[in-house]
Fold these 4 entries.
Entry 1:
Amino acid sequence: MNSPDKANRIAAWIEEHRDEMIAALREQLRIPSKEGPPSEGAPFGAECRRALDHALAVAQSGGLRTRDLGGYAGHAEFGDGKELVMALGHLDVVPEGEGWKFDPYGAQIDDGYIYARGAVDDKGPTYAALFAARAIKELGLPIRRRVRVVFGCNEESGFRCVKHYFEQEEAPTYGFAPDAEWPLIYAEKGVANITFSQRLEQGSVLRIASLQSGERPNIVPDRAVAVLVGSDTDLQVAARKLAEYWDRNVTASLRPDGICVEAVGKAAHASTPFLGDSAATRILRALHSLELPNDGPWVEALFRASDPAGTGLGIHGRDEIVGDLTSNLGILRLQDGVVTALFNIRYPVEWSGDSLIERVSHFVQASGFQVETLTDSKPLHMPLDREPVRSILAVLEEEFGEPQTPKTLGGGTYARAVPNTVAVGTHWPGDGVAHEPNERYAISSYLRAAKVYARILLQLAG
């Protein structure tokens, strides 16, 4: 285990570099690194490219060896030896959404917190790991394995970054992803994205001309908009019904091109959809109340299917390791006569993507929808008596001064895609929530995380 002297030296180094660490993180947080149109050297868009360039520059300024893998990912490394210890973080972020008290890319400091999209998920923890590695290097602490910090650019929307990375780079002897809850995550649910589609009948009666809700599968939609068209009489009747509709989060306005219906909800991470308020569900419920002649059946089917337990899709279930399955209707579109619905599903470790398809077959047969696409990230289950779980737990029990109980996770981290790797915690009470407005990271949490990550890296490498 790390000696008290080493832990104290690490803590002192972090405090001495406090201003540098804060400045570097704030510069990174000002980069709106949402996935964008690809280009040469920037497979996930110009802003993700810029975020990676910044991380590599910060690493180089600290004397670390760096490598850029075509904009998919990069790393910073020091030390010698055949074996490798790795921390894997990501620099891409989800869209900012609405309801922020500060500019989501302003990195405003208020009452000891840095406010920004990506502050907690995952730029803050990633930079904490980067400076943790620098601390070990500059203090000259003894290690027998190389230490590497990996910067991914596509964690939020597909993991193509780590897939590309490990086609060219070695897997770690031991690794951790600073992107979860304390102390560590030993099991992660499987994550599947299933897209259903249906071509609709066109007619002259009152119908939905367009519908849009959600930007990413892994976020509960906080806004939905639909446009109804039809005869003047039908539109007047529908407008009166919507004006009397009970849900004050749903509003409607009569315009020259039809009725515009809007719903407002609350964003949340798709791993905990019950903590959000789906605008997609709200607008489907409102549209269902209109008893639309042609659109009624598919609207009702999707409304019932949108419950977060997966009951309406016929996939509700659980296991004793990670608990209940969750489902999030993350993206809903009606365009050019075709309705598509993308569900982000977090399923038990004892299931598979194929078993999900079997379970949704009844919904498909009854609703008229067909499965358009399926992507599947298999579950993770790391036994508690294996490394690196044992060593990380030992460090954290010493750091926190009490026994630590490993947890399971509904979200997906890099740990599921990398051998011998688990996810560890990033934040403490008071810090913001990933994927929600006003995401924030306490400066004290950022510095403390760097100290903890340095101790973990030192233990795994030494």
Entry 2:
Amino acid sequence: MNKTITYNFGSNSIKNIADFLYDNFIRQGKGLGRVACVFGGKRPALFLRREIARKVNRGYIPPEIFSMDEFVDYAVFKEEIPSKISHFDSCYLMYSLVSKFIPGILGKAANFGQFLPWAKEIISFIEQLDLEDIKDD
């Protein structure tokens, strides 16, 4: 299907998408297993699945629903999406590395809890460097 459908910002886009999927797939006996939907975040997936279930009123295989980040990961890595470290784990890793290699930076932060705000700042700074594609040197 090579067409683009747009909806007004004021419209109920979840209902419109569910109607479209129902009319063009489910009603015609086609499954949704080969359909992908991409949203700006994760929450719309919950509402879309609920709206489709309300229309179908029986069990069904839902479409693949991605957030933008998930879709990019899927497009780049296909089936083997690498696992990501949680933000809290990355903060602890930063604390461990600083404690081991440059403990002078810890200052008065004697434990992880006290260093946590600084770990968040350091990680945020590194992420900004990555986003702006700043070279390592």
Entry 3:
Amino acid sequence: MSDLERRARNISLRRTAQSFAALALGILCGLFFGDMCRVLEPAGIAFIKLMQMAVIPYVVVSIVGGIGGLAGIEAGAVARKGGVVLLSLWLLGIVLFFSMQYAFPEKLTASFYGAGEVTQPERINLIDTFIPANPFKALSEGMLPAIVLFSICLGAALIGVGEKGVLIQILAILSGALSGIMGFLMRVVPFGIFFVAAYAAGTLSLDTLYHLQFFVESYLVLNLILTFVVLPLVAAMATGLRYRDILYACGGALVLAFSAQK
């Protein structure tokens, strides 16, 4: 391992440790100060929106530029492997979505709910989530599966287009600029994790936690497995990188994704 690789690994380890520490401190802060942590909600929402501001354009630019700059033979190999990975992730998401309900016990009574608190749940259209009829709407609402599909289609269409060199260069420059924004935001990820965790722990009443204990535990376990086991393993199989290296490099982002779950 070279000095540069060792230095990058140490930075990733330090950021991951800081993220876990921020998550633990945020939970302790929420449990200690309780409802007073409600004032941290705007800070947590602002941080998540800042991450989305950089992530969504970066996804579009990097996918379109990366696929659009490929030659025909390279594109075929990428399409076969990338298509399998993408379809696998979609299938995994759909299976988890429908199977998660079986992790919950059957609740015969729910006396702790009031009749006035019952609201009609929002219906989720899976087709609109994965296939964008309006790409601009998908971009504005942050529907990543639809955004990824649109970016792949646009990048694939650019493969056979002539005189695309200037556009690919512009996309590469934009990708570098957005990477700079992401690099800066990753340095302050522990603060965002602290705000989100403190607000979540402080605003959840003990009575509600007692009644929903099994549901919360099942939800947390499922998210832990999905965030720190399934997704890194899929990335390791698709890229050839080691599972440990992926955790080192993406530990902070994974902790943020886990703590920001709603």
Entry 4:
Amino acid sequence: MAGLSAWPPVAVVMVVRDEAMHLREAVAAILEQEYAGALHVAVAVGPSRDGTETVAAEMAAADPRVTVVPNPTGRTPCGLNAAIAATSEPVIVRVDGHAVLPPGYVRRGVELLTETGAVNVGGVMGAEGTNDFERSVAAAMSSPFGVGGGRFHYGGQPGPADTVYLGIFRRDALDAVGGYDESFTRAQDWELNHRLRGRGGLVWFAPELRVTYRPRPSLRALGRQYRDYGRWRRVVMRRHSDSVRWHYLVPPVTVVGIGVGLALVLVGQPVGWLAPAAYAAANLGASAVVGRRLRAREAVRLPVVFATMHLCWGWGFLSSTRGLGRA
């Protein structure tokens, strides 16, 4: 890749807030990378209630490769831009506080930037839980029924993609588009990759770049997460009309269908049961298939997990206001 040595210095940027439980593991996985070049970790820390700031400060004091950057707004794109601005390396690797990089991730990512000519490469969001609930969520997030057509959730053939999980970027490409759009609370990755592709840049999906992701620890947190996904996906679609994909419309149509069906039932129209019954049948069928690789106490949670993901995403999409995302 033009302008890069064989093993260029790499800046790994991450934004954290209330991540004390996973932060040490995530940063340790970065510092232990099998990479011949220099590594610099910039952690943007938002206001937290669980001691995340203290954990980050202790890691920075223990290793000069770690820099802590304040992120007073707590917003992800603001933190990412602040962390990027605090570094100077020609390659930027994005990591989440919930993510654990495999040992060869950075090395292979830099190789792929050179081999493909891409401005961003990324791989699979390998959801893995640490308890029964999280393992159920991880299974749902790794299935087409749960998350639709995104290859970065469950794999597929390598090649050009609309977006990828996290990302390994050329700094000059990020600079050219102005970095992350700070008006996006969610979906900022999709929106950024859309602008990169709009300038002729190649975004490359590589399934070998699998990153461990820790799911949300409760049904309530999962519901908020997917509600926000739905709201902000609609903002991206408003901002970039050519970004519409059919599978984004399935959850809101499902919510409307179930809502109309139940309303018909309330006024004495039994035909209204068709939509709720159809969704329930699809959910239970998918839960039976996905649950085959889980233990019984994990599999039994799948119908509720699927319903939470779908209905909250759909409701978020429907309730997304036009004022959302305005700078």
